[in-house]
Design goal:
The complex is a heterodimer of chains A (about 240) and B (about 300). With about 240 residues, chain A is an all-alpha fold. Helices cover about 85% and strands about 0% of the residues of chain A. In chain A, helix 3 packs antiparallel against helix 4, helix 4 (about 75-115) packs antiparallel against helix 6 and helix 4 crosses helix 7. Among the domains of chain B are: about 35-130; about 140-165; about 265-295. The longest helix of chain B is centred in the last third of the chain and has 41 residues, at about 220-260. The chains are: A mainly alpha (about 240), B alpha/beta (about 300).
């Protein structure tokens, strides 16, 4: 019953957001602020995540395929394909579920428990349009950008570490990566990143917007937002893989 | 410096877009800042080839396969991106082959000798090479039969060999070997016994050679003069030969003249009239003598015996 109740409130919030998404003047300023916070400010950590994902994957794949019969180019193929299809979308999403999701949930939760949202409403401002819509749009807009960053740094990191560690010569890595590279995989990665951006921001907004119970309640909703966002990201990843591949 | 939020967003999105385009072209094996040339090759079949397979010329990678498609003729059109700026002759042949046992298929372009070069959109002929694995797969069964037959025959051969080499044969072989060994030993002992004689023979031969040498050395002046005399003799012979040649030339000329009927001798030989005259004379004489025999009085009428004597 509680779950259905939650789903209904969540749907209602999204519906209100969709309906008020035309009120661009209300959230314009907030939108760019959120784009910077979600996109621009997340680029360093996504670069870091990408490089480490790629390098660890290269070293471990090379370790696992350490047999004379498998050409070194296979490692490049496995690493670049894994990164483009899965890791460049999912791992930054999990990291950003903590970074972005927690921030959004805390902000909105705090505004809720200190009755700022009520104050906005009493001033006649659409609080969903003012607070939720810019965050959702920013999430959907910026996650694909971060996916690009993670893909490039991930494959680049794999290439670099393969070269530095001597596990995979650069030419072999590129040969394998190019041989199995297909634009369809990129489309798949982009779809994932859109979906993940939407899930993380919407779940965080929902948990923060409906926070209750003072400071403790804000902490609880932040935790829930992060955890639920991670779970839904993994779930959506599975569903998308089942549907699209 | 205070950058507005809009600018930050703009920078992020722009950079990401640029990186995405460059990365895409890089991964697709398209030159980042240049349009590649698209060449089509037509194959009967293209098993094992896929978009992204590499294209080589003489072992150097020059591009990759963009995509494959069946054409109207039921053959396979393979579209290749060629990055190389080196011109490729337009009668080149694309060969679909596998470079190694485990590697995937690749296209190898064998350059032709034409003066004209391929341009964007051109088509080249394609040849499909069967890979080793496919060949083995097809020929596997026959090969297996052959191998098992061969092994069976080999087995039989060895069994026969074993039978042939029964105890008797072995004994015979053994004896043969022993005999051979004894013979060798005997030859060896003979050689040992006759060593001195052989040595003497060789010494004698050597002495003889040295004596001949001294003989030649001692008589060198005489031999020399002999040689000189022989040489002058040969020179004289040479002069004689020249004269003889001259004489024979002259004789030839004379004979030629005679043949042509020039001169007295020539007429004598070649002109039949003298013979004919002589012949008719003989006939006349014959008839005269017959006349005298038959009727001497006719001729002797005007001669008296007195007068005659």
């Amino acid at each position: 019953m509680h779950a259905l109740n939650q789903l209904g409130r969540y749907s209602n919030l999204l519906y209100q957001g969709l309906r008020s998404s035309t009120e661009f003047r209300t959230y314009r300023k907030n939108l760019f602020q959120e784009l910077v916070k979600i996109g621009y400010d997340s680029v360093p950590i996504v670069i870091l995540v990408g490089i480490f994902t790629g390098s660890v994957l290269t070293i471990q794949t090379a370790y696992q395929l350490e047999s004379g019969f498998i050409p070194a180019s296979t490692i490049g193929a496995i690493v670049s394909e894994s990164i483009l299809i899965e890791l460049a979308a999912v791992i930054p999403a999990l990291v950003l579920a903590g970074k972005v999701g927690a921030r959004i949930a805390t902000e909105l939760g705090n505004m809720r428990v200190t009755e700022q949202i009520d104050a906005l409403e009493s001033m006649g401002l659409n609080s969903v349009s003012f607070l939720v819509v810019p965050r959702l749009i920013a999430g959907i807009a910026m996650f694909p950008v971060l996916y690009i960053v993670a893909s490039v740094t991930g494959v680049g990191g794999g290439l670099l570490v393969g070269h530095l560690s001597g596990a995979v010569p650069t030419a072999d890595f590129l040969k394998g990566a190019r041989m199995f590279f297909s634009p369809a995989n990129l489309v798949f990665g982009f779809v994932k990143s859109y979906v993940f951006g939407f899930i993380i921001t919407s779940v965080a907004c929902f948990k923060g917007y409906y926070a209750s119970g003072g400071a403790e309640g804000v902490g609880r909703s932040t935790t829930e937002a992060t955890v639920m966002a991670c779970i839904y990201v993994l779930l959506a990843d599975f569903i998308l893989a089942a549907l699209l591949l | 410096m205070n950058i507005t939020n809009e600018a930050k967003v703009g920078i992020t999105v722009l950079l990401a877009a640029i990186v995405a385009v460059i990365g895409f072209r890089f991964m697709s094996d398209i030159p980042v800042f240049r349009q590649p040339m698209i060449i089509t090759a037509e194959f009967d079949r293209a098993d094992g080839l896929s978009g992204g397979s590499l294209v080589y010329i003489r072992g150097v990678r020059v591009g990759s396969v963009r995509n494959l498609a069946l054409n109207q003729a039921g053959r396979v059109d393979v579209y290749m991106r060629i990055d190389s700026e080196i011109p490729i002759p337009d009668n080149s042949v694309a060969r679909l082959t596998s470079l190694g046992l485990v590697e995937g298929k690749s296209i190898v372009i064998e350059p032709g000798n034409s003066e004209r070069h391929l341009i964007n959109g051109d088509t080249v002929a394609g040849i499909y090479d069967e890979s080793v694995m496919e060949f083995l797969g097809q020929k596997g069964e026959e090969l297996g039969d052959d191998v098992s037959n061969a092994i069976a025959e080999l087995n039989q051969f060895f069994m026969q060999l074993n039978e042939t080499l029964n105890d008797d044969a072995r004994v015979t072989l053994d004896q043969t070997l022993q005999n051979t060994m004894q013979a060798t030993e005997r030859i060896s002992s003979i050689l040992t016994g006759k060593q001195q004689e052989i040595g003497q023979a060789i010494e004698a031969g050597s002495r003889m050679l040295s004596q001949m040498d001294t003989l030649v050395t001692d008589n060198r002046p005489r031999v020399d003069s002999l040689m000189t005399a022989l040489e002058s003799g040969i020179r004289d012979l040479e002069t004689v030969r020249t004269e003889l040649e001259q004489a024979s030339v002259n004789l030839n000329e004379i004979l030629a003249k005679i043949n042509q009927g020039e001169g007295t001798l020539g007429r004598l030989l070649n002109d039949p009239s003298m013979y004919e005259n002589l012949d008719s004379l003989t006939v006349e004489l014959n008839s005269l003598i017959r006349g005298i025999n038959e009727n001497p009085g006719r001729y002797l009428r005007h001669m008296s015996i007195i007068e005659l004597f």
